[in-house]
Amino acid sequence: MIIKAEGNKPTEAGTKTLLQHLVTTITDKFLPNYGLLMLWASLANAIPMTFWAIAFILANPSVYQTAMEQINTVLKNQDTERTSVMAADLQQLSYVKWCILETIRLRAPGAITRRVVRPLKIQNYIIPPGDLLMMSPFWAHRNPQYFPDPEEFKPERWEKADLVKNVFLEGFVAFGGGRNQCPGRWYALMEIHMFVSLILYKYEFTLLDPLPNPSSLHLVGTQQPDGPCRVQYRHR
Known about the structure:
The chain is α+β, with helices and mostly antiparallel strands. It folds into two domains: 1-43, no CATH class; 46-235, CATH 1.10.630.10. Helices cover 41% and strands 10% of the residues. The protein contains nine helices and six strands; from the N terminus they run αααααααββββααββ. The chain has a two-stranded antiparallel sheet. A two-stranded antiparallel sheet has the order 2-3. Strands 5-6 form a two-stranded antiparallel ribbon. Helix 4 (46-59) crosses helix 7 (94-106) and helix 5 (61-74) packs antiparallel against helix 7. The longest helix is centred in the last third of the chain and has 18 residues, at 185-202.
């Protein structure tokens, strides 16, 4: 994978793939590790979260209708056989992005852990170096102070977020918080946004099973479905 990226030339427009940027900025010693990390990071959570986003949309008919109205408006001149979604298109597909962020809110990891590297004071407590701290996005995202009706799938709540400036809603910690958030969060959101928009545009779905519950066995990473989720589909 690394060798192939090194041999590929940039396009006529001068653009490079993410992997091509990687091979020109990381030293040879660390390239295999970073290449594998990028492959894992782009798939491990994005794919199951894409499933949940589509499942939530299909399980809520009014949401499905609103999302399709926006998708059909933005991509109406596209051929369903050869459809391309550009960054400018994604900017117009705001409701679909709200659906994705609401999905991430409800299916975020159960826990994020970090090791303390220096003495940390929290109120009257001192956390010594070496201890582990744990934050639970699952429970943080169910705090009614920040998310009224927290168990309800409400994409409209994200209308209040300033997503143009990449600002999430207060209390949203799926990617961490502060200055040390997940460095790949914008890539992951774009990846999911593009795939969900494309597959909903190309295929018409009917949900055959109720929306499955998340598995209680998955504490780290995107929660897995605790049961089947069958659909009937046809090409548009």
